[in-house]
Amino acid sequence: MKKHILILLFIGFNCSLFSQQTPADSQTQSILIYNAHIHVGNGEVIENGSIGFKNGKIDFVGSKANMDNYQKTINANGKHVYPGFIATNSTLGLAEVDAVRATRDEDEIGDFLPHIRAAIAYDAESKIIESMRPNGVLVAQVTPRGGTISGSSSIMQLDAWNWEDALIQNDEGIHLNWPNPYSRGRWWLGEDPSLKINKNYSTNVKKVSTFFENAQVYSKNQIPVHLPYQAMSGVFEGNTTLYIHAKDEKQIVDGITYLKKIGLTKIVLVGGNGAVDQLDFLKENNIPVIVSRPHRLPDNEDDDPKSAFKIASRLVNAGLLVSIDVSGGMERMNTRNLPFYAGSFAAYGLDKEEALQLITLNSAKILGINDKLGSLEVGKHATLFLSKGDALDMRTNIIEHAFISGRELSLETHQTELWKRYSKKFQK
Questions:
Q1: Which CATH superfamily is domain 85-373 in?
Q2: Which residues in the chain are classed under CATH 3.20.20.140?
């Protein structure tokens, strides 16, 4: 009997240690934040402004509001209010510990997998997800990886009991990894690491075109049931965005040219390191770009060492719609640095409010949710936060309040718990 009691106590302890942080309750009180610098998200800043919200929706943004209309008021004392940041092309909730295979669910076996849905693999209890909120990242496009067509992405709010509660928009995009016309040898196997022409490029492109042509024919009758082809129907109907992942200049041009040729209208370029050399082509075809994070090395030995920091300004100045992703090494935990990546782009050619748009309104426009999120406007969801300072500067972005659809979030995380625990140890 004692043994059983000890086992139950051990299980209870572990559940309390590793269990999900309880999501916030629905908004019950109307709330007004006043005396704040309000960064609307569309380039506008309202000094000494107020923002009010009821039932999860913003009902006032301006200079002065009637405080009597709100049950709860928060004096910002000159601090800053921002729209919740939106992480695009993210694998949040799809993997927890890279070294533990059982916790990784971002990559399915196979090449052409448009029917694989990131939404149902999303883990709302992820410890990594709760670490996003203290930096203002409140919404994410959850995206699968791997294969030629990875699957479909969905848009999630980052405070939920489960994936159904987290959903903002389900299966909003299909992700295509266009074949690379170049390849490098695997240096760790003794191969020549220099850049070479990929001899299999034409073959790989043919596989892609064959799949799209078959899926396009299938979309007209859908008999018999074929799940991969069926999942592509929204792309051909113009209801689902096709995200093409491509870096090299030729990769970008070949991929977009083909997709336009078969009649696709909703196309977004992801990665796009070579996009700066095809500005006219991208603008002509009205292609938004999700650029990679700036904190990375140049792709080629003779590139400008700061080229990764300058790419956003060059694309924005060319009139393109631009956002940021954090794909690459340690991408899930690095997602919390999303605002600081935007700040780095601001240091290299972008106005601060333009840089803010990269992770707010621009992201919302690309994802097709700008009617709900991305800016602080009447009628939109009250997904926002109050920071002591500049949210794009890691030295000053200290968040005091955060809300998703008017629900005030806990800003406690596993990291803050450890900090509080061990900071006391060294107090004199």
A1: Metal-dependent hydrolases (3.20.20.140)
A2: 85-373
Q: What is the pLDDT of residue 428?
A: 61
- pLDDT surpasses 70 at 75: yes
Rounded CA-CA distance 49/386 in Å is 13
Q: What is the mean pLDDT of residues 180-187?
A: 82
Distance CA 154, CA 167 (A): 7
Quick check: helix, strand or coil at residue 428? coil
Q: What average pLDDT does the structure give for the chain?
A: 91
Selection from 277, 253, 282, 244 nearest residue 148 by Cα: 244
Cβ neighbours of 96 (radius 10 Å): 17
Can you tell me which residue has the tokens 């572990």?
A: 14
Q: What distance in Å separates the CA atoms of residue 47 and residue 16, rounded to the nearest whole number? A: 43
Half-sphere exposure of 323 (CA within 13 A, CB side): 29
Under 8 Å between Cβ of 38 and 81: yes
Residues 290, 229: Cα–Cα separation, whole Å: 26
Q: Which tokens belong to 56? A: 């999860």
| pLDDT tens per residue, range 262-280 | 999 999 999 988 899 999 9
Q: How far apart are CA 130 and CA 152, in angstroms?
A: 23
Asked whether residue 14 carries a pLDDT value surpassing 90, the answer given is no
Q: What is the CATH number of domain 21-84+374-428?
A: 2.30.40.10
Centroid of chain to Cα 293: 12
Asked if 392 and 343 touch (Cβ cutoff 8 Å), the reply is: yes
Residue 294's CB: how many other CB atoms inside 10 A? 21
Give, for 376, the enclosing helix (H) or strand (E).
none
Q: Where in the chain is the domain with CATH 2.30.40.10?
A: 21-84+374-428
